[in-house]
Specification:
Blueprint (H helix, E strand, L loop, with lengths): L3 H14 L2 H15 L9 H14 L6 H17 L9 H10 L11 H16 L3 H12 L4
Length: 145
């Protein structure tokens, strides 16, 4: 499982070295780096959302409006299936994790930290993704990013 102390160390390292815009970008890139591990759990709409997020955050392609529209599509999918507030299904949890990467900018002062913590909580709910996430957290925390 991904440890809170490792997430806190990462958040502290990023906060010290990045302004709020760069912090948001850094967190979104980390989240995008983890999304391929969830692909087996995701319906097509969420797989497309992963592609949109990766294109925007990793490749620099597309615009914030596309992220917003894709996020809305994911929420609509969850609403249609009466599962937007439930975290009992692994598929729903995985879709909610994908949604974390679909915000072109932070919506509040503490949005980034809370989104990253929420994402990690969702991953931990799905299983042990520490072999994927821990090296990414450590990379930045150790000053390599």
């Amino acid at each position: 499982m991904i440890k809170d102390v490792d997430v806190d160390r990462y958040i502290n390292a990023v906060s010290i070295s990045c302004d709020h815009i760069a912090r948001h970008q850094t967190y979104m890139r980390l989240i995008c780096s983890c999304l391929p591990a969830l692909s087996i759990l995701l319906p097509d709409i969420a797989l497309n959302a992963c592609r949109v997020a990766e294109e925007y955050w990793i490749s620099g392609v597309g615009g914030g409006q596309k992220l917003d529209a894709t996020r809305e599509q994911c929420w609509n999918y969850l609403d249609r299936n009466h599962s937007s507030t439930s975290l009992t299904s692994p598929t729903v949890v995985a879709i909610r994790a994908v949604i974390c990467a679909l915000y072109p900018e932070a919506e509040s002062e503490d949005f980034d930290d809370e989104t990253l913590r929420w994402f990690v909580m969702l991953l931990n709910k799905l299983g042990d993704y520490s072999k994927i996430v821990d090296p990414l957290l450590a990379e930045y925390s150790n000053g390599a990013a």
